[in-house]
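Minimal example, chain plus pyridoxal-5'-phosphate.
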Amino acid sequence: MSKIKDHRVFLSVEEAPTSWYNMQADLPSPIAPSLHPVTKKPLQKEDLSAIFASALIAQENSPERYIEIPEEIRQLYAAYRPSPLSRATALEKLLDTPAKIYYKYEGQNPAGSHKMNTALAQAYYNKLEGIKRLATETGAGQWGCALSIAANLFDIECAVYMVRVSYEQKPYRRSFMECYGASVIPSPSYLTEAGRSVLRPDPASNGSLGIAISEAVEDALSREDTNYCLGSVLNHVALHQTIIGEEALRQMAKAGDFPDVVIGCHGGGSNFAGISFPFMREKLSGRKVRIIASEPSACPTLTRGVYAYDYADNAMLTPITMMYTLGSNFMPPGIHSGGLRYHGASPIVSKLHHEGLMKARSYTQNQSFEAALTFARAENILPAPESSFAIKAAIDEALAAKEAGESRTILFCLSGNGLFDLSAYDAYRAGQLKDISYDEGLLRESLSALPKVEND
Ligand SMILES: Cc1ncc(COP(=O)(O)O)c(C=O)c1O
């Protein structure tokens, strides 16, 4: 018998899930309706149809527990899914922990992150409805890369508003998107009123996801042939990402295990939703599992934000949504995990957090990079800076198990690889990264501008 062990657990394409899981069907009570940004009345389908494909609007509000994945998307998924689930045995050994650490790796597809799972679905539904052009924003660049690939596959034009600080930190992200035919615009830009209104008082603005969203929405509203796509936050985006957790559940069962704790990093909430919602369903049906979101202390939406109605963007063009928020004009410091620099959160994740069904933790970027290098040197994969927040929480859990002298099964989502983030790793290794904790006064100021809404 061979002594060689494979620490990965695979599913075949035949064993892959054929439906996405809609967490909304199992929430203790429904999420509050989103409101029109001007009338502040509950949003109607028609309000969204100016910028979204109707199939995506239907998914956004669907009461169905399971939504079948169209065969064409399953065929495209089959080029890189099911993604592997791996046991981090070298990391366990390094930490000398009795805990078992599993990670679900989403960085092996051409875009390098979980964002591909929804990019393919969004491009597919827009193509079916005859859309010729998509406008979007990107923070770290991962989402922009994924949508550029998907748009090219479906022969749709793609305009990407990229948060300026990331545009400057990651020049090869722009090249990558352009290789697939996308046009990439540093945001804030002079192309939109939303961008100009930020640049007038602050011509050197770093930008933020909130501003880039405003620009992309304004672009889509101004053109008949263009729809808008978002890489996180929305219910249909969380829905598409549940393929991650559905696969992980089956892979854990194959390994003869079930996690005591499930961890995802948290920006707008999509990879966290993806890995955790299927396990949350299990929790709600009586199985024991803790669920943890890990976020940067420089952008502490779940740990220091408030649960309130707020705009998803900076220019107040998007619906007002009940969610955890730091205030829509919150300007996060230019940290290197650009994908986590968002003031708000998925309404479903927010609801679960508000109901006490999950926990959130925050870490500094130096803590996350230290965890990233520990992981990389043990397991060989260089993680995306965003994913490193999940790694840090997983390492803490493993060390706590060691301290308590107990076994513990930990599952985390390794949402992407860090191959485009080497300048961030250089800065970390040179000791140049600052740990910025968000100032209480600035936080109070940005929260004081929350919209006034009846029954809030
Ligand atoms: C690799 C990676 N992980 C996580 C995130 C955070 O986004 P979300 O919370 O939607 O998963 C991003 C966002 O760009 C990302 O690129």
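The pocket of pyridoxal-5'-phosphate is lined by residues 113, 139-140, 142-143, 232, 265-272, 339-340, 384, 386-387, 415-416 (CB under 6 Å). The longest helix spans residues 235-254.
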